[in-house]
Specification:
Elements (H helix, E strand, L loop, with lengths): L3 E6 L4 H14 L3 E5 L5 H4 L11 E5 L13 H12 L5 E5 L11 E7 L5 H9 L5 E9 L2 H8 L11 E6 L3 H6 L8 E4 L17 H9 L5 E7 L7 H12 L3 E7 L3 H13 L2 E6 L4 H6 L3 E2 L1 H6 L4 E5 L2 E5 L1 H15 L7 E5 L3 H13 L2 E5 L3 H10 L3 E2 L8 E6 L19 E9 L8 H8 L3 E3 L2 H16 L5 H10 L5
Parallel strand pairs: 1-2, 1-8, 2-3, 3-4, 4-5, 5-6, 6-7, 9-10, 9-11, 12-14, 15-16, 15-18, 16-17, 18-19, 19-20
Antiparallel strand pairs: 11-13, 13-14
Length: 489
Amino acid sequence: MHPTRIVTLPGRSVDDLRAQLGVAELAGAELAEIRVDRLSGPERQRLAELFPAPIGLIATLRSRAEGGEGPDDPAERAGLLAEIAALPFAAVDWEGARDLPLRSEARTIVSFHEVALDSEGIRRKLSERFEGSWFVKVVVPATVGEAISTLLPVLPPAGENRFVFHTTGASGPLLRGWSERLGMAAVYCSLPTAAGIDAVEVSQIPVDRIRQFTEAPGPARLFAVLGQPVAHSLSPAIHSRWFAAARRRGLYLALEIGSDHEFAEALPGLISGGFTGVNVTHPWKRLALELSEESSLGAERCGCANTLVFDAGSIRAENTDLVAVLRRLEELQSDGSWAGERLVVLGAGGAARATLAAAEAVGARATVASRRPEEAVSLAREFGQEARAWSDPVRCDLVVHATPIGRSSAGDPPPSISDWIAPAGRVLDFVYRPERTTVAEAAARAGGSYEDGWRLLVYQAAESYRIWWGVAPPERTSSELLQEGPSAG
């Protein structure tokens, strides 16, 4: 039996909540959580207007001490909770650390939102049985590594107790993705991304994706993108579209990994936790190859991997960035947009490596430049190509931008990007949906055209999908994604 799907509604007014209830129901929510602490006094007085509701409602009065906006004082809370309990809510959440047990016709949820890791304390709370409660809910901050190594061992066996255990921070999506596997009573979700409404908790997974994962036929398959940062990643949205179109029981997560050690420690836990494979992005692509038992020729030539396949406990490395950029270069040659003779690669990381391997495959000469000159020289030598300093540019009709410039976290770019672009030349950017238009503006100043990394992302994602599932993703959905652009995410 799958965990009950509960959507936390972010609305701050009764009118907004009513509209969001309809969206939640259509997307597959079985219950909706009303965060009463987020409502003003006048809006709380209107709560009765939510009834009758299309699905059952849970009332939560989260205290400031536990990350909400409600009161901490037990007496004040008791009065508000009594008012809430008088309404026909399906369940009422009360905080085990400060509230007295409710006398209510509604089921109760006993919750604890911890501010620090305490594995023994978590074990005790999850093993407690509160009379009349539906389940005990414990939420704690944790990295992916902490969730796997420290928290999973303290969870009760599936079916032994009714509980919900969620985490915030980097591991938040992981524990929610494992909610059925771990035997949780419920999983707290967000509204679908298509609703365009920010989630109350960024760790929550859209309810339509959880529904697809729990109700589609076939064995459950988990996937993720690992990197730092990954919050911007549109890979979960792309793969989720394909899963839905093909009726596949898959779930794709974005998991931020903070160190080499955590990356290496996390892989065995993901394998034992039912993951079929992962994508890997900056800065762990070279480490991904080093930790693999097997690797494709493409990954070996690139010296890094952006796709891992978990098979019978072993790890196989692939490089679908190479497939994507090679496909795009061949398209540009075919339609006459690029002569296929020369290109410039800006950057010296995994994307630059894939581009140089693709240039080698089509017989093009490449010039490499990086803000770290020694890395550009080393990379160019490895691929038998030329390196130049940022201050000594050469104009070219195809410039492949393979640095994080354009992301808000990338820092200030060097001023001379436009000096590399020939008039009427083309910039092919690996950055998709950039927060800053730095590279596009450089292309315009040089009189060239600009293409963001959306097509490359879809191409590499499609190759990852083919490797993991053994078939290409639905062609019609792929075409729709390319036409819609980054707004599809």
